[in-house]
Each structure stands twice: as C-alpha cells, then as structure tokens.
Amino acid sequence: MTDLNRPIRVALADDHELVLEGLRGLLERETDLEVVATATDGEGLLTIIDRDRPDVVVMDLAMPTRDGLSCLSEIRRRGLPVKVVILTAFGDGGALQSAWEMQADGFALKTDPPRQTVATIRNVAHGQIVFPRVVRQAVSGPAVQGHLLARLTQRERDVLRLLSEGLPNAQIAERLVVQESTVKYHLQNIFQKLGVTNRTEAAQVYYREGGSVER
Fold first, then answer.
1. Are the beta carbons of 208 and 100 closer than 8 angstroms?
2. Across 7-105, where does the E strand assignment appear?
3. In what order do the strands lie in the sheet with 33-39?
4. Half-sphere exposure of 194 toward its Cβ, with a 13 Å CA cutoff?
5. DSSP state letters, 196-215
6. Radius of gyration of the CA atoms of the chain, in A
7. How far, in Å, CA of 184 to CA of 193, rounded?
8. How far apart (Å, rounded) are the C-alpha atoms in residues 166 and 206?
9. pLDDT of 25-49, one tens digit each?
10. Does residue 110 sit in helix, strand or coil?
C-alpha cells in the first residue's frame, strides 16, 4: 500500500524511447502519479529501483541486458518492495504465464486505452492484482479452470473474491457482515484447500482458475 497523501512513484522501462515518452507524458498529466525515472534495458531498471525506490514499475518483457522476466525474478529474489506491472503487446502466452507465476502484480496491454493503463497503475499501487481477461485466457486453458475453486464453499469463494480485489480482512468482514475472526478462519481453510501460504498466491489461484476480474 502506498501513502495516500503523496503521489504514487512510478518507474518506466521499455527499450523503445517512443513508448517511454508516451507513457511519461500520459502519467505526468495525473496529479497523483509521479514518474521518478525511466530505463531502456533491464540492468538500468534494477539500478533505478535501488536508487529511486519507486512504488510501481511498469516494464516491457522484451528488453536488452536483462529481459522483463529476468528483472521480475531478481526483484522477487531480493524482496524489493515494488509493485510490478507488465506492459505487453500480448504476443507470447508462455512469457505471460511465466510473469504471472513469478507474481507480477498486474498487466497492462499496449492496445489498452490510456485511461485503462493509468487505472491499472493506481489499482496495483493500492494493493490490487490486475489480471485482464485476455491475459488470463492466454495463461490458462478453459479445461483446467475452476478445478481448485470447486473445493471451496460459497462463503469461502466470497472471501477469496474480496481478497483478490485487494481488500484487507476488516473490509472483507464489513462487506460480508461477519466478524473479522470469521474471515481469518475462512482464510485458513482457503489456504489449506488451495495449497497456498499467503494472500497473493491465493489471489493468483482465483484469477487463474477463472474468478471474475476487475476490467
């Protein structure tokens, strides 16, 4: 979660200068977003993450020196406190699958309207996972969707859906009109049934298995 009293600090990485300048111009028109640095290759991106400590990185998968997957892997390995949005032209389902498995926080399509990209950055900064339907279809076939979710009760699915929208336990309890301790109890059961250990992994299963998506 970012501090709501300051702009969201964003770093951009793409090997096409035109894309970078277009994104920078788009984001600089938003009062709650601040572009702190840009990079045209993977090593440069890791350098600016260390130096400028952005809240969100928006990066292409195809970059020189280190590609986007290598950067994402290094970010996760080092436990860097930055949200990662993958900017993609939607060409390689295998790469998108790998990015998802490495816990990318969101995906923005280069064909999206500008307002959608801005919304994705905001939502990811505020703790939501943004997994567009077309990306989901690329990384999971319909034959495997729903298998794990079928293990959950309807109330557990309700809890998981709200968790996947980025809501904390207290807000989930308020939405479902239950005690927060009840939410925690359901989460324990959800984690066990899905074979996961944390909220991010649970949300990934929800989206991968065909849960509804914010779009």
1. yes
2. 8-13, 33-39, 56-60, 83-88
3. 33-39, 8-13, 56-60, 83-88, 106-109
4. 27
5. -SSHHHHHHHHHHTT-----
6. 17
7. 14
8. 12
9. 999 999 999 999 999 999 999 999 9
10. coil
Q: What gap in Å lies between CA 92 and CA 192, rounded to an integer?
A: 32
Place of tokens 């034959």: 143
b/e for 46-56, b at 16 or more Cβ within 10 A?
A: bebbeeeebbb
Give the integer Cα–Cα distance in Å for 175 and 19: 40
Crossing angle of helices 180-194 and 199-208, in 10° steps, is 60
Which position has the token pair 């207290």?
170
Q: Which residues pair with 13 in a beta bridge?
A: 39, 59
Residue 135's nearest CA partner among 166, 158, 112, 113 is 112
Distance CA 76, CA 81 (A): 9
Which tokens hold the place of 10?
A: 């964003």
Low-confidence ranges of the chain (pLDDT < 50): 142-145, 213-215
pTM (2 d.p.): 0.69
Domains and their CATH numbers in the chain: 8-133 (3.40.50.2300), 149-208 (1.10.10.10)
